[in-house]
Amino acid sequence: MEKIMEAPHIYLVEELELRVSIEAVEYKRKLNDFWLENTFDPHYFKRFMEGPLLSEFVQTIYKRTQHLNNNEINKYLTVSLSQFKTHNPALRFEALKEQYYKDYWYPNPEPDHHSKMSEYETKYFTHVFKWYEKHFHLFEEATKQALDDFKKGYLGSFADFSIQNNPQPKQKLKTNLTVKEIAYLFRALHDEGIIEARQKTDIFNFISESFSSKQKEDISANSIKNAFDTPDFNAVDFWQEKFTHFMQKAKKDKENLL
Questions:
Q1: What string of DSSP letters covers 72-124?
Q2: pLDDT at 163 over 70
Q3: Which of 52, 8, 256, 60 shows the shortest CA–CA distance to 168?
Q4: E-strand spans in 86-220?
Q5: pTM, to two decimals
Q6: Closest CA to 54 of 101, 9, 12, 8
Q7: Which of 257, 109, 237, 247 is nearest to 181 (CA)?
Q8: For residue 46, with 0-12 CB atoms within 10 Å meaning exposed, 13-18 middle and 19 or more buried, which class applies?
Q9: What is the Cα–Cα distance from 70 to 57, expressed in whole angstroms?
Q10: Is the pLDDT of residue 7 over 90?
Q11: Tens of pLDDT along 91-150?
Q12: What are phi and psi of 210, to 5 degrees?
């Protein structure tokens, strides 16, 4: 957001729309350019908007106001808050679609009018817009909170709070394992008593939050549960061979220590 709003008289919702458009373009290009490594994640924009983007939005409020006097801060926040009505998603579908189309083709001119986007492109944009519309209220609430903070005389405290409560997503460990292979490994560790958990769902959620599989970046806890409860033959066969290699390596390492 810092890169977008350099010109004066651009208020928060206008900037938010630009930021969402740019993210939509960048994600789409990543899918197009690196399609072998990336698959479409239907929940990517849900996580992005309620996590990283919301935190970024709150920090932007304070970056934009830190060098303004009280009258300027009051105007900036009041006008920005009013934009949540004038720029409500229900009124802005076509405007955002046009912005997305311009950003997608930048720095080249659009080949035709945004209304002539392909069915596939329109479907993708509509998907992004759906999540934007669902999370729009979060950004309005953050702006209201900032204005309340300003009126109470402690503008800035909410920004500190947002950093603590909106941490960046945890970097996942990349593996060359399939979901079924990951699930069986943790089942074996669990059955041997090497790892303990109050309930198995804690294991499923931990794997989902901490690891990426050979096929995809995000693994659902439910897919782990299914593979954990009903082991796959090929996954068991894979680990049988690996466990044999581990045993041989441990034996060799032990001999070297004697």
A1: HHHHHHHHHHHHHHHT-HHHHHHHHHHHHHHHHHTTSPPSS-GGG--HHHHHH
A2: no
A3: 52
A4: 173-174, 211-212
A5: 0.58
A6: 12
A7: 237
A8: middle
A9: 21
A10: no
A11: 999 999 999 999 999 888 888 999 999 999 999 999 999 999 999 999 999 999 888 888
A12: -110, -20
The tokens for 75 are: 């105007």
Given this model, what pLDDT does residue 38 score?
A: 73
In the chain, % helix, strand, coil (3-state, to 5) comes to 70, 0, 30
In whole angstroms, how far apart are CA 215 and each of 3, 22, 36, 104, 211? Answer: 34, 26, 9, 27, 12
User: What is the residue type of 46?
Assistant: K
Q: Which of 47, 52, 77, 49 is nearest to 62 (CA)?
A: 77
Q: Which amino acid is at 78?
A: T
Query: Tens of pLDDT along 190-224?
Result: 999 998 877 787 788 788 888 888 776 677 777 88
Q: What is the dihedral of CA 214, 40, 173, 193, to 10 degrees?
A: -70
Structure tokens at 167: 């941490």
User: Quick one: angle between helices 52-65 and 119-152, nearest 10?
Assistant: 50
Query: Residue with structure tokens 């970056």?
Result: 63
What angle separates helix 12-33 from helix 119-152, to the nearest 10 degrees?
140
